[in-house]
Structure formats: structure tokens, C-alpha cells
Specification:
Helix content: 55-70%
CATH architecture of the largest domain: 3-Layer(aba) Sandwich
CATH class of the largest domain: Alpha Beta
Largest sheet: 6 strands, antiparallel
Radius of gyration: 41 Å
Distance between the termini: 21 Å
Strand order of the largest sheet: 2-1-4-5-6-7
Strand content: 15-25%
Number of domains: 2
Shape: elongated
CATH topology of the largest domain: Rossmann fold
Length: 563
């Protein structure tokens, strides 16, 4: 469950910390006090985008921290897969937002928004103020059905996705065969030209590198010859002043006195080594200069061949191996064109086989969906009766898409009748906003039980309801609170009276600065808050008595009917 929420410098919240408990946690307050900001801060911690203006005036950054206590093994497994340290049943999610960037952390380790959302999906489910409107869209209805039967449906959906991918690849390949005879012949001619051009070049591996090296050497021949001649004059062939002549004279002079001292002998040995090395260098230099000859014709042929290879690179690939790969691809395509009818017939058979596999997988998926649709319809009907839909009929109608999709061929439509004698119609044609919110509440309850989601958050689920319906919604919320942690923002006293923990969100002016605060209410304060919700600005003794009675009735209901 969500055990703690800490918010700092977000909108009107200067700093707030809340310790939530198990069961039904109710948040109430005056309109404009900042109730939705609190739920918004939870969404923010879980990766929702935030505009710079939401950071509190005068602050450089905003911070939201969520602490969860959980025994769900799936959470531990997800943390392990993401290589995030486990805190043994505790998950700490932190997001800090500055003007230009934000940083998210799980258990102290920086992570991506996708990682946060993955963990969050296992910990809680948030129902926003307008989310019930999504029930009007058939794709969302199909998601709900698939979530309800996910243990059997998810593996089948994976098979359908793979079958769809294979069929689509073959169908796309068949489009290449949608050519008339003239177009096919033009394509064959062009392919043959490209293949022949590469064949005629007779490319050899590494040839381009060898030619480029030789071309650089030839094109810089004059500079190379002049430099080598100067080096040769300095080291070996110069008269009198060359290094070779000078070292030779030095060797002769030193040899006359080397026998006079052992140190001189060592020096003579070193000088002889230098003389040998210089002689070796001069022989190597002379050999290089003798071989460094080429004709203008050789230079022209090298340049011409290099130009040819570079031209092919520009057309077919940036290297000789790339050109060969291109040729192989075109050769394969040419074979298809030359054996057009055979290839087309073969591909058509493969495509038909893949389509049949996709059809069978989709049929199997549809059958499982139909099975769960019946169970879901009954569950929703029962849930709606608990929410004051006394004569409701709820059905899930199946249809078929015009084309296959990666999700099969099913389309579904939620249909409902809320009054005796009325025909069953699509949700959009029947229900009001308040009715939609109750239907979503029933669905959320069913899915939460199946998913074992520990925490549910409802942001003003009570929109558009009052009276007896509000009382039944409050009972439903209390029932959910016995199996899950529930956080609920409400403006209805009937729901607030059912609270296991009651929090008031209030807007105050402190030092000419407006701030939103949240604090837990004790029994007496909770009754006064109920009285405010019942009676408005003026709280009379009779309103307080009504609030106390409402609180007592709620206590009795939780201890008897809802136990």
C-alpha cells in the first residue's frame, strides 16, 4: 500500500507529508483548496509531464516522494529484472523537477520513466476525474475485457501478434509482384545492367586501399625523390660533410687510441654499432630509391582504376564488401523476376497459409474472449446493482474488424439498459456522466480483485451522483477498502463518513502567501468536516448532530453489513 506521500514546492503546496493507512482513506476540502493537486503529485511522481509553472513561485525545484509497503512478489521480481536494489518490502519512488529537467529514482537509484511506470502498475491504479469517459471508446472496452481474462488471453494475444507479423511480412512481399509485364521487363533489364557492371569491374578485396596508397605515393613522387636525395647526401653519399663520412673518420681516430683504456674500447664499440646502423640505413635507402620508379602510363592506369572503384562505391556501397552485398541482393531479386510466376505462386501459398494460421489464432482468441465476456457482463451487472442500478442489463456485443490486426479481429461494444422495458443500447447512447463513473467504479473493483492491485486511487469518482446512489457508492467504496487500500477525493459526506482515515485539505494564507496544507482528522474533527460538507459555511448544532449520526451509521454498516 501507499504508506507515505511527501510533496514540496508544487503549485500551492509549500511542503506536505501524509501518512496513509490501510482501508478507505478519504480526502476532503473546500473547492479550490488543492485536492486534485495532491493526486496530481502522485501522477507526477509516476512520470506525468509537468509544466514549469507548476513549480511553486520563488522555488527552484519541486519534489515528490512516494513510499510503498508491499508483499507482492511481482514487485520484487520487477526490481530484480531492472537491477534495482530491494528494500525488503518497501519501494521508494522519488521525482525531483527543476525548470529544465527532472530526475526519477526507485530505492535511491536513478531510473527511467518507463521503469517507474512498470513498478507503479504493480502497486496502484489511479482513476482520474475524466477517465470514465474512456469507457465510450471500443478499444478501451476491449482492453478492459482482455485485462479481466488476462491469464488465458495474454498468451493467445502474443500468438496472434506473432501470426499477424508473419502474415503482414508475406503480404508486403507480395506487393512486389504487383507489376505488369512491361514493368517487370524493365526491372529485369535494370537489374541485369547493375549486376553486369559490378561483374565487369572484377573487384578484389582490399584493392581500393592498395590503389589509394600507390596513388598517393605516385602523385607525391617529386617531393619524395627530392627529400630522399637530401637525406642520402646527409647520411651517406655526401663528400666530406656527410654523416657516414664523419662517423667513418671518427671510427678511425678512435681505433688508434682504444687500446690505451678500457673505457675507450667501450666507446669504440658503441661508435662501431652506430656506423653499422647507418650503413644499413643507407643500403635500405639506396634500394628504395632504385625501386622507386614508375611510368606515366602506370600512374594513369592506377588513377583510372581508382576512379572506377570510387564510381561504383558512390552507386552501390561505400566499400568493396558493401558493393558485393548489393550485387547479391540484386541477383536474388533478379532470380525472383526471372521466375516471377513460380515465386508469386509460392509466396501466395505461404501468405494464405500464414493467413489461415492467423485466422485460427484469432478465432481461438475470440472464443476465449467470448467466454470471459459472459463472466465480465455478469460481474458488472452485480456490481452495478450494488451501485443503485436496480434493473440493469449489461451485455458485451462482439463484431469483426474489416481487416486483421495484431490484436485479432474482435471489436466489442459495451451495451446497457438501465430501466425496465428499455432496449439494450451502446453506453454512449444511454448513460450520463454520473452513471459512467459508477460503471467505471464497478469495473475498477472487478479488475483490482483479479489483478491483486494493492492500492486504488479515485479522484472524484462521485461526480454527478447524490442521495441514495451516493450512499450505495459509499458502501461500495467501503467494501473495496476491506480488500485494498483506497485513496478517494470526494465532495459527498456519505462517502466521507465511511472513512477509515480522514484527511482535510485546506488552503490558508501564511505571511501573505497562499499555501495548501493537509492533515489527518481525529473523530471529532472528522465529524465537523462532515458537518461542513452537509451544511456549508454555517455549522449549526442540528447539522453537527446529523454529521454525528451519519458517522455512527457508517460505523454500524462497516461493522455489520459490510463485514
Amino acid at each position: 500500500m501507499l504508506s507515505s506521500l511527501h510533496v514540496k514546492n508544487l503549485a500551492l503546496i509549500q511542503e506536505a507529508e501524509v501518512e496513509f493507512g490501510p482501508g478507505l482513506n478519504i480526502l476532503t476540502g473546500e473547492t479550490g483548496a488543492g485536492k486534485s493537486i495532491l493526486i496530481g503529485s502522485i501522477n507526477l511522481a509516476l512520470g506525468k509531464k509537468l509544466s514549469r509553472e507548476m513549480i511553486r513561485e520563488g522555488a527552484d525545484s519541486a519534489l515528490v516522494e512516494l513510499v510503498f509497503e508491499t508483499e507482492n512478489p511481482k514487485v520484487e521480481q520487477a526490481l530484480k529484472e531492472m537491477e534495482i536494489e530491494s528494500l525488503h518490502g518497501q519501494v521508494l519512488i522519488v521525482r525531483k523537477i527543476t525548470g529544465s529537467r527532472s530526475i526519477s529514482k526507485i530505492n535511491g537509484e536513478t531510473c527511467t520513466t518507463a521503469q517507474v511506470r512498470r513498478i507503479a502498475s504493480l502497486l496502484l491504479d489511479i482513476h482520474g476525474q475524466h477517465e470514465h469517459q474512456s469507457l465510450l471508446y471500443t478499444d478501451r472496452q476491449l482492453e478492459i475485457l482482455d485485462a479481466y481474462g488476462k491469464e488465458e488471453i495474454d498468451p493467445l494475444r502474443a500468438r496472434v501478434r506473432e501470426a499477424f507479423r508473419q502474415w503482414k511480412e508475406l503480404r508486403d512481399s507480395l506487393k512486389e509482384y504487383e507489376l505488369d509485364e512491361d514493368a517487370r521487363m524493365r526491372e529485369i533489364s535494370f537489374l541485369e545492367f547493375e549486376i553486369r557492371e559490378i561483374d565487369d569491374a572484377q573487384l578484389r578485396d582490399g584493392e581500393d586501399e592498395t590503389l589509394e596508397q600507390a596513388y598517393r605515393k605516385m602523385s607525391n613522387a617529386r617531393n619524395i625523390v627530392q627529400a630522399l636525395a637530401a637525406v642520402r647526401a646527409m647520411t651517406g653519399d655526401g663528400e666530406g660533410q656527410s654523416a657516414g663520412e664523419q662517423i667513418g673518420r671518427a671510427v678511425r681516430e678512435l681505433s688508434q687510441i682504444a687500446g690505451m683504456d678500457e673505457s675507450l674500447q667501450q666507446m669504440q664499440s658503441s661508435l662501431l654499432t652506430i656506423d653499422d646502423l647507418l650503413n644499413d640505413f643507407n643500403r635500405e635507402l639506396a634500394g628504395y630509391m632504385e625501386e622507386f620508379t614508375f611510368s606515366e602510363e602506370e600512374f594513369y592506369e592506377t588513377e583510372k582504376r581508382l576512379d572506377e572503384i570510387n564510381r561504383l562505391k558512390a552507386k552501390y556501397g561505400d566499400s568493396i564488401p558493401a558493393i558485393r552485398r548489393y550485387q547479391e541482393e540484386k541477383q536474388e531479386k533478379l532470380e525472383k523476376m526471372l521466375h516471377f510466376e513460380e515465386q508469386k505462386e509460392k509466396l501466395q501459398k505461404e501468405e494464405e497459409k500464414a493467413r489461415q494460421t492467423l485466422e485460427e489464432c484469432s478465432q481461438e482468441l475470440s472464443g476465449i474472449r467470448c467466454k470471459y465476456a459472459g463472466c465480465l457482463s455478469k460481474s458488472i451487472e452485480e456490481g452495478l446493482k450494488d451501485l443503485n442500478f436496480l434493473h440493469v442489463i449489461f451485455q458485451i456485443q462482439f463484431g469483426r474488424t474489416a481487416q486483421y490486426t495484431e490484436n485479432g479481429f474482435d471489436t466489442i461494444e459495451f451495451r446497457i439498459s438501465t430501466n425496465p422495458g428499455e432496449p439494450v443500447k451502446a453506453l454512449a447512447k444511454v448513460v450520463s456522466g454520473g452513471e459512467l463513473s459508477r460503471i467505471m467504479l464497478a469495473i475498477k473493483t472487478i479488475l483490482a480483485d483479479r489483478d491483486e492491485t494493492e492500492s486504488l486511487i479515485f479522484d472524484e469518482i462521485d461526480t454527478g451522483i447524490s442521495g441514495r446512489t451516493a450512499q450505495m457508492v459509499s458502501e461500495k467504496m467501503a467494501q473495496i477498502g476491506r480488500r485494498h487500500q483506497v485513496l478517494c477525493i470526494t465532495h459527498l459526506p456519505q462517502i466521507a463518513a465511511m472513512a477509515d482515515q480522514h484527511f482535510e485539505i485546506r488552503k490558508d494564507v501564511v505571511d501573505q502567501d497562499t499555501v495548501t496544507r493537509i492533515h489527518a482528522l481525529d473523530e471529532e474533527s472528522s465529524v465537523r468536516e462532515l458537518a461542513r460538507m452537509l451544511g456549508g459555511a454555517k455549522i449549526t448544532d442540528s447539522v453537527l448532530a446529523n454529521a454525528e449520526e451519519m458517522k455512527e451509521l457508517a460505523r454500524v454498516q462497516k461493522n455489520t453489513r459490510l463485514k
